[in-house]
Amino acid sequence: MEDLKKALKMPLFGNTFSPKKTPPRKSASLSSLHTLDRSTREIELGLEYGPPVMNIGGQSWKFEEGQWITESGGNASGRELQRLKKRNVQLEEENNLLKLKIEVLMDMLTETTVEYHLMEKEVEDIKTQHRRKK
Questions:
Q1: Count of CB atoms within 10 A of residue 29's CB?
Q2: What number is the average pLDDT over the span 39-61?
Q3: CA-CA distance, 5 to 3, in Å (whole number)?
Q4: Fewest CB atoms less than 10 Å from the CB: which of 7, 25, 42, 68?
Q5: DSSP output for 8-24
Q6: How many other C-beta atoms can be found within 10 angstroms of the C-beta atom of residue 64?
Q7: What is the maximum alpha-carbon separation in the chain?
Q8: Going by C-beta distance under 8 Å and a sequence separation of 6 or more, which residues neighbour residue 70?
Q9: pTM assigned to the model
Q10: What's the rounded Cα separation, in Å, for the pair 108 and 114?
Q11: pLDDT above 70: percentage of residues in the chain
């Protein structure tokens, strides 16, 4: 019975929570390269900072001004092609707007023509009634 009381008083994992101390961190960099200026680093390591370039399927792509541009046909033609594509999209949107405006104008013309014919018929009916009265 006394063993049971002892077992109930003793917690399963110990009385208090005490995590192990973490070892101190090592220096972030053991290299002295971070103390060199950019030109010295470029000379020492051959680093050239420029736009990212990759080769996919035999075509070379360069990331410039937020877009990937192919270098196989030359930079100018690739940029020109993208500019033309953008202009084409703008012209298609403008064309769709103009088509919509033409459709609205045709509907208005149809409505006006119908009203004209109705009024013309009313005038003819009034003329006919007026002739009968005479």
A1: 9
A2: 74
A3: 5
A4: 25
A5: HHS-SS-SS--PPPPPP
A6: 16
A7: 134
A8: 59, 60, 61, 62, 78
A9: 0.40
A10: 10
A11: 70
